[in-house]
Design a protein that fits this description.
Structural class: alpha+beta
GO cellular component, one term: mitochondrial outer membrane
Order of helices and strands: HEHEH
Transmembrane segments: 44-66
Distance between the termini: 32 Å
Organism: Salix viminalis
Helix content: 40-55%
Number of strands: 2
Strand order of the largest sheet: 1-2
Domain ATPase AAA-type core: 8-59
Shape: globular
Protein name: ATPase AAA-type core domain-containing protein
Number of helices: 3
Length: 67
């Protein structure tokens, strides 16, 4: 299976976004990291995640990133 560069899941709380992201990570044999929308944490995460590749990173509540 070829893995795409990235996807974005958007919707209200309780619709299964996190569950789907975890399932994708499991099926892809990738690590799963879930974070909030803290910008400093996000930058540190990408630095850390680059060492764990392949990895799926799940951003919860990322309104600052979308707009």
């Amino acid at each position: 299976m070829e893995i795409c560069c990235g996807i974005s899941l958007f919707g209200p709380p309780g619709t299964g976004k996190t569950l789907l992201a975890k399932a994708l990570a499991t099926e892809a044999g990738a690590n799963f990291i879930s974070i909030t929308d803290a910008e400093k944490l996000t930058k540190a995460l990408f630095s850390f995640a680059s060492k764990l590749a392949p990895v799926i990173i799940f951003f919860a509540w990322c309104s600052w990133w979308l707009f």
